[in-house]
Amino acid sequence: MTILTLDIVAFIISTAGLVALLWNWKYFSKCNLALLFLFLLSFTLFYNFCLIIEWGGITKVLDPYENMAGAIIPMTWAFIFYALIINNKNTRLEESHGNLKRTLHSIGDGVIVTDPKTEIKIINPVAQNLTGWNSEECLGKELQEVFKIVNTNTGERVQNPVKEVLQNGQTVGLANHTTLISKTGEEHAIADSAAPVKNANNTLIGVVLVFRDITEKYKMNQKIRKKTKNLQEYKNRLEATMKLGNLAWWEYKLDEDNFLFNDQWPKMLGYNPDKFEKYADFEKLIHPDDHERVKTAKNNLEKHGEMYRIDYRIKTNDGNYKWIYDIGNVTARNSRNAPIKTNGVVVDITDNKRVEERIRSELQQKQTLLKELSHRTKNNMQQISSMLSLKATRSKNTAVQKALDEIKERIYSMSLVHKMLYDSQNLSRLNLGKYINRLVSHFRRAYSKNIQFKVSINTSKIEVLIDTAIPLGLIINELISNSIQHGFEKQDKGEISIGLTSSEEGIIVDISDNGQGLPNNLDFDQYSGMGLKIVKGLVKDQLEGEIYFEKSQGMKYRIIFTQKQYKARV
Amino acid sequence: MVQSNEIVMFIMGIGVLIFIMKNSEELVYIPHHKLLLRSFYVLLGAWFFTNIEALIATQICNIAEHVCYVCSSILLTLWLFRMGFKKEEAE
Question: Hey, what's the torsion of the CAs at A81, A85, A90, A94, to 10 degrees?
Answer without folding.
Answer: 120
